[in-house]
Backbone:
């Protein structure tokens, strides 16, 4: 039995767990620089997580088991998602357990339980966050699937490894539908990971909170797990966009040198996507909730155009 | 071992016998409950065994029973398709029968339940008979038995006006549908043997006949209309959200879970088996109605705050998803892609099985809540997870399943449907290549909205605090009800984690109907990997997704619980203001408000805010009143004109009734003259 894919798999999960806080730190650092503030450094998220893990949990009196179970579930599904996306190598054992539809569904189940946890305590904030999150998700999810389906139609597969292999091998040159799908994917990534203009991860203002409102009651290790999962999710979406649309440098040779090279390429791509993310976030203002329909609607339209372009032009 | 058909037949006789026995046991109500539902459970289980064996071994057994009209014997047949549906009906009936022991025992404390027991047995028998019927006559008799029994079950609590109204509406729609089915069979049997012979009424004769295209289309459209009325396909769904909520909850579980499936069975039987050859646009009709039902069903469900009504609208949605699979299968088949057709058919049928189980589970859970809290309005509920931990956890399993989230069963069938959608580019027609993937987007929208809806349903009902003014004394339900729900929940998990085993088993159904199976590719990597078509095309491993997530959760939990006792319970943080009251929580209406605003054009919404001008003092605002009415647009578009027209017509015809004997004598006289003139 060839152990190499399993080693890559474990390595990749370690990388996702390990560098996602640094990625968030990188984004925050860039944001501070672009806004003329002093940043707390690349490693502040690690310190935050460590601090939260050390703290005691303060739980509201009527919190049920759903509230306590949710952080673990969110963490678990996000780690599994981190094992599915082929970031280092296309030959990952976990990649075959789940295709891109399962990947979307894994994020959906994490969201489902986070929204339930938001309603568990019985505050107005929690319900508000849950309601908004589920509304946004119900508009974003079809657009996300449409964008990815364009790719899977072109590559004749919904398996992420297969899509990456096909695009990497150059069977698909630069095509208009790729551009449409990529644009749609960027818009949806902003919505799914709760960034400006859809949601502001730094706010605690009741009028604008979405994700923060749901997890307002969390503390201690529960909050640490949710925060960490959130960081991984942001990194995973950036990495997903990077491997699907720009799969350069990914390891198809199954050698140690290939894996190292893939890792360096991944760092480069993540760094660049962080720059793009910060440019978008500083350039735009947070949207009103009901303007999001237009935002996500245009994402859906772009994805649909991509699909039409695939049929008309190919 | 008994022949499967005999086994299923004896299950039916057992149920019919039970109905008679219930008449005799009318005075011993408590005994009656235990005996009758235990017998129903045994009968359902034996029918399930028969169904599982027929599908697994791909056998077909037939029988002729010479009862009924002279020279028109009843034909019975149990083939893999019938076996599959027998299994679906049998499993859920088994679970619901166990649940009913506890549930009906509680009802029997308040009112006599003989009627419920008798019609329950007849209802189950009717559903089994519909599925094993092999001629139009027996099919329609069973169909009517099923409809009539369920009518009386809907009418069980007949002292309430809304129940009588719902039952009447149900009866009307059921009969309009049955009429269309009768006509469809009439067309087919007439063409099968000509109008001289009378033996065209058997399904065998219809199978062998070749229909001219026009008449085949007429038969299909009539049958689709009739079965769609039973299945609650939009716009014929109008009775469903009225009738399902008012029936006792065990009946709602059966009606939503399996009675609607007999209509799906009818559609599959008539198109794939009896007519056999059809053009692609029949499939598109089924697909389009499926998509409309799915999206509209879930949107209407989101607007409900009556728990059982919400679930009823979700049945509309799920019937839509099933029809999407079946419609795609028909399209693939008409373009002669047997493998793709069997994949889409498996997707539809798998969802049929899944929906039966999770919807049964959810209705049983709703029944438990209703029974414990005597409240149907979600706006009053909340915090039940602390009082009913079992029901809450089991309802959560149902919610996750219906929302289509892994590793539970709803996800598997939706995943298969997505795969079927993504294979549509192999179709030759460019228009269909273009349009069908858009259907995938609608399915994605449906799944996402269903998740939102069940966050609302579970969150508002079970989480937070009780919202009503005074909280009733709520207790967890008894072990019969619990065990019924536990079995259903375990089945949800098993069907989600082990899809390959199930698909290998049910692969004989597409083999019978479209002549191809997907098993060889679906299970090529062993029982863990579900790989329809080809492993590099798509793969899903339920067991691994379940196990990996579970192990990460367990590892994280254990690592974090090395230190113990670090949880402090404190009162809710109220931002330094006065005490937070339960009335400040988000309600079901508030939760759905953004979605109501975005998709508002689908509904007929009347929103009013009234300010009471008589304020106690000018610094204190007066009472505000907010009313919101959301109505189904179809009622105004389609049904109101129909109702008005029929009233108008009956008023016109009513003028004939003068009430004077002279007038009536003249009518008779004129009739005789006319008859003499024309029929000399």
Residues:
């Amino acid at each position: 039995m060839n152990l190499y894919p399993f080693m890559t798999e474990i390595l990749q999960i370690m990388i996702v767990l390990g560098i996602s806080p640094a990625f968030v730190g990188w984004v925050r650092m860039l944001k501070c620089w672009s806004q003329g503030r002093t940043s707390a450094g690349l490693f502040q998220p690690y310190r935050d997580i460590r601090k939260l893990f050390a703290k005691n949990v303060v739980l509201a009196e009527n919190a049920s088991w759903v509230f306590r179970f949710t952080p673990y579930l969110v963490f678990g599904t996000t780690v599994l998602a981190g094992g599915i996306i082929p970031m280092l190598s296309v030959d990952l054992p976990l990649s075959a357990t789940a295709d891109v539809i399962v990947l979307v569904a894994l994020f959906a189940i994490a969201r489902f339980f986070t929204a339930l946890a938001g309603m568990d305590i019985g505050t107005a904030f929690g319900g508000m966050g849950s309601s908004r999150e589920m509304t946004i998700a119900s508009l974003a999810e079809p657009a996300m699937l449409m964008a990815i389906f364009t790719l899977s139609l072109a590559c004749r597969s919904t398996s992420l490894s297969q899509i990456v292999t096909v695009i990497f091998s150059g069977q698909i040159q630069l095509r208009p539908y790729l551009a449409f799908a990529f644009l749609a994917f960027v818009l949806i990534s902003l919505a799914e990971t709760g960034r400006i203009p859809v949601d502001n991860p730094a706010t605690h203002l009741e009028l604008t909170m979405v994700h923060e409102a749901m997890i307002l009651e969390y503390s201690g290790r529960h909050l640490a797990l949710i925060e960490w999962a959130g960081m991984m999710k942001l990194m995973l979406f950036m990495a997903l966009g990077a491997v699907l649309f720009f799969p350069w440098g990914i390891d198809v040779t199954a050698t140690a040198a290939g894996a190292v090279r893939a890792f360096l390429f991944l760092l480069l791509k993540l760094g660049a996507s962080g720059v793009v993310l910060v440019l978008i976030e500083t350039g735009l203002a947070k949207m009103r909730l009901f303007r999001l329909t237009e935002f996500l609607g245009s994402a859906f339209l772009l994805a649909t155009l991509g699909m039409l372009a695939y049929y008309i032009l190919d | 071992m008994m022949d499967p058909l005999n086994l299923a037949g004896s299950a039916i006789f057992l149920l019919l016998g039970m109905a008679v026995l219930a008449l005799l046991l009318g005075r011993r109500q408590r005994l009656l409950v235990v005996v009758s539902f235990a017998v129903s459970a045994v009968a359902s289980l034996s029918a399930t065994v028969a169904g599982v064996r027929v599908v697994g071994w791909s056998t077909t057994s037939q029988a002729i029973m010479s009862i009924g009209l002279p020279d028109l014997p009843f034909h019975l047949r149990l083939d893999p398709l019938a076996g599959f549906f027998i299994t679906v009906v049998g499993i859920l009936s088994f679970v619901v029968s166990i649940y009913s022991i506890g549930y009906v025992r509680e009802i029997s404390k308040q009112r006599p339940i003989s009627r419920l027991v008798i019609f329950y047995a007849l209802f189950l028998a009717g559903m089994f008979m519909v599925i094993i019927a092999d001629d139009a006559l027996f099919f329609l008799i069973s169909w009517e038995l099923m409809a009539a029994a369920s009518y009386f079950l809907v009418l069980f609590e007949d002292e309430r006006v809304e129940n009588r109204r719902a039952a009447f509406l149900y009866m009307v729609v059921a009969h309009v549908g049955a009429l269309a089915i009768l006509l469809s069979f009439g067309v087919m049997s007439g063409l099968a043997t000509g109008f001289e012979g009378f033996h065209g009424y058997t399904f065998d004769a219809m199978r062998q006949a070749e229909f001219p295209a026009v008449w085949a289309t007429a038969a299909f459209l009539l049958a689709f209309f009739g079965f769609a009325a039973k299945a609650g396909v939009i716009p014929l769904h109008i009775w469903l959200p009225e009738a399902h909520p008012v029936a006792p909850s065990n009946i709602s579980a059966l009606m939503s879970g399996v009675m609607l499936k007999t209509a799906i069975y009818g559609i599959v039987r008539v198109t794939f088996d009896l007519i056999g050859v059809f053009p692609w646009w029949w499939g598109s009709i089924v697909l389009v109605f499926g998509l409309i039902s799915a999206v509209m069903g879930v949107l209407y469900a989101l607007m409900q705050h009556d728990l059982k009504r919400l679930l009823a609208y979700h049945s509309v949605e799920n019937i839509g998803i099933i029809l999407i699979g079946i419609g795609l299968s028909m399209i693939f088949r008409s373009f002669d892609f047997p493998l793709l057709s069997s994949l889409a058919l498996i997707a539809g049928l798998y969802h049929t099985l899944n929906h039966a189980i999770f919807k049964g589970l959810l209705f049983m859970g709703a029944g438990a809540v209703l029974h414990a809290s005597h409240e149907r309005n979600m706006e009053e509920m909340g915090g039940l997870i602390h009082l009913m931990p079992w029901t809450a956890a089991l309802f959560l399993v149902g919610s996750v399943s219906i929302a289509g989230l892994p590793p539970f069963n709803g996800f598997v069938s939706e995943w298969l449907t997505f795969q079927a959608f993504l294979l549509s580019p192999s179709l030759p027609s460019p228009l269909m290549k273009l349009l069908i993937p858009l259907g995938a987007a609608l399915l994605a929208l449906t799944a996402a909205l269903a998740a939102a809806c069940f966050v609302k349903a579970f969150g508002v009902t079970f989480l937070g605090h009780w919202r009503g003014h005074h909280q009733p004394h709520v207790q967890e339900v008894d072990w019969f009800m619990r065990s019924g729900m536990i079995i259903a929940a375990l089945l949800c998990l098993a069907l989600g984690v082990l899809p390959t085993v199930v698909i290998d088993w049910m692969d004989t159904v597409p083999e019978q109907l479209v002549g191809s199976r997907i098993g060889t590719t679906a299970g090529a990597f062993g029982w863990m990997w579900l790989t329809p078509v080809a492993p590099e095309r798509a793969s899903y491993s339920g067991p691994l997704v379940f196990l990996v997530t579970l192990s990460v959760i367990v590892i994280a939990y254990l690592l974090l619980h090395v230190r113990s006792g670090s949880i402090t319970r404190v009162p809710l943080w109220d931002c330094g203001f006065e005490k937070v009251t339960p009335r400040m929580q988000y309600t079901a209406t508030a939760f759905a408000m953004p979605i109501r605003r975005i998709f508002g054009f689908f509904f007929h919404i009347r929103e009013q805010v009234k300010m009471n001008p008589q304020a106690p003092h000018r610094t204190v605002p007066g009472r505000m009143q907010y009313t919101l009415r959301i109505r189904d647009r179809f009622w105004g578009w389609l049904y109101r004109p129909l109702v008005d027209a029929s009233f108008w017509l009956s008023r016109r015809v009513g003028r004939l009734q003068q009430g004077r004997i002279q007038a009536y004598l003249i009518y008779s006289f004129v009739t005789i003259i006319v008859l003499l003139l024309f029929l000399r």
